[in-house]
Queue: 2 jobs
Job 1
Amino acid sequence: MADDESRIRQCRSFYMISMLNRIRRRRRLLQTTVMNLVSRRRRILSICILLLLALIQRNDVVQPIRSCRRLLRNSGWWDTVWNNYSEARFKKTFRVTRGTFLYILSRIRHQLERQTVTEDPIFPELRLAICLYRLGRGDYFYTIAEMTGLGVSTVCTVVREVSQAIIDCMWGDSISKHMPRSEAEFKKKIIDMDELWQFPYCWAGIDGCHIPMKCPPGGLQSSKEYHNFKNFYSIVVMALVDSQYRFVWASCGFPGNSHDAIIFKSTDLWSRIEEGRCIPNIGQSMDGVTVPPLIVGDSAFPLCTWLMKPYTNAVLTPQQRNFNYRLSQARMVTEGAYGQLKGRWRVLLRKCESARDQVRTTTLACLILHNVCIDRGDTISKKLDLTLDPNTQARRPREEVRKLLQMTTCSTVKDTSSEAQKVRNTLCKKLWLEKNTGKVS
């Protein structure tokens, strides 16, 4: 009996254990089925939502613009400058006021606008801003490219095209317009020069200035031609300046090793003056000598009846020293003009990494911008004027100014014109008489 009861208990235990195992398997299967069902419903719901969003945005898809650009263009720099910069900061950045900026833009906009379907063009305002920033600051193209979000070659192209547009559209109204042609215009220039610089019968001053550049290609011969006596490579800009520091005529591009007299004689202006097609016959008669309208220059220029230069004798008389002093005082107008030019447009003060033709284009564009600022009353800060000491605001010594501006210093040209010597001697007597009597005759 005891054995039977033991078997019965064992069978019941086995049965219970089997039933529990079946219940557990059924529960696991039910849980797995429910989880798969929930997951499937979630996937179906996600797919439906994506399809719904795709249908909603189907009509708003923007077709990408075909472009060879790998990186997006950053347009935030110019927006920040135009909208947030104060007038003082804007002028400090671009060297001109907003009014002058808009005036320049209005003159050259038609040459800066681009019509293209394969690329998003750079708008004219940004192109002019890049050019003025380069001319005013003299920064490297790479620096400007990183700042504006453009390529280095793009920035270089923009500066070249905008500079050429300024020359093509504004040279006549900014440079040639101030070159006197009629008798009335010459007389006005002479009066202004006499009142402001105290030299009679003079209407302009002439001088040359070096524009630093990298060593040009062409081998040893080219290196010798462009390597000047100041021990760097350059081209020379030769210009006439009136009493208001405005450039009325300019020639740029001669090698830095060229003599001032050779450069001036090689220009069309020299030929026109020598042929009598430039300066009118309105000379002033003094002691039987006719004094025509004069240009003042240094000893590197040839002495002509219309071109005055200082006495270069080894021993000078008091009258000759007085004449040289008055002539030197009148010639300071050219140093002042170059000081403002290179002080405002610093690209001309530092060595330019561009090619020779681009340096010439940049220089001529800066001459135009210099005159535009003067005509519009856009004054230059005294801190930028290189003829003034930034600490004392006093004028720097003359030799220091000429060295800082990298102005030309050539050998003296011998005086060969007897008629020109008569004119100079007559002026020498007049200036000595004015000094002694205090009266202007």
Note: Strands lie at 202-212, 234-241, 247-255, 284-286, 289-291, 294-296, 307-308.
Job 2
Amino acid sequence: MQLVRRLRTRSLPRWAAVVAWMALVFYLSAQSSLPMLSDRFGILQSIAGHFVEYAILALLLQWALRGNPSKGNGSGVSHAARWALVIAVTYGLTDEVHQHFVPGRAMDPFDLLMDAVGAAAALLVAGLVMGRRGAALLASERPPTDLP
């Protein structure tokens, strides 16, 4: 029972962050138009917006899915990353369908592509950073060898 309580107290804030971010994405998607920096940079702002939105979503999902692996009760990094990517891209698809019903907005496959690229890029970079950090941690735990 204590383990379940501990898992809930650790998992709840992580999943609350995921749900809050998804709610923000949904809110932004429900707007008929979003402010643009300038007409000249409109497409770049749209690309960057989708990329960053879903990069953050994927990282939050990975964080929530991992739980607390140092205590042995969470899934591994690569397993969590795979599921985070699947969930983020699926949410991106539902977001594009949602936009189809919003006046002034349209479903755009390119937006979904940018969502997927942003999520995948963030998870790839996180995996590389975590991999190096994990390798450094393992190296520091090895006993020193006195080889000539």
Note: The radius of gyration is 19 Å.
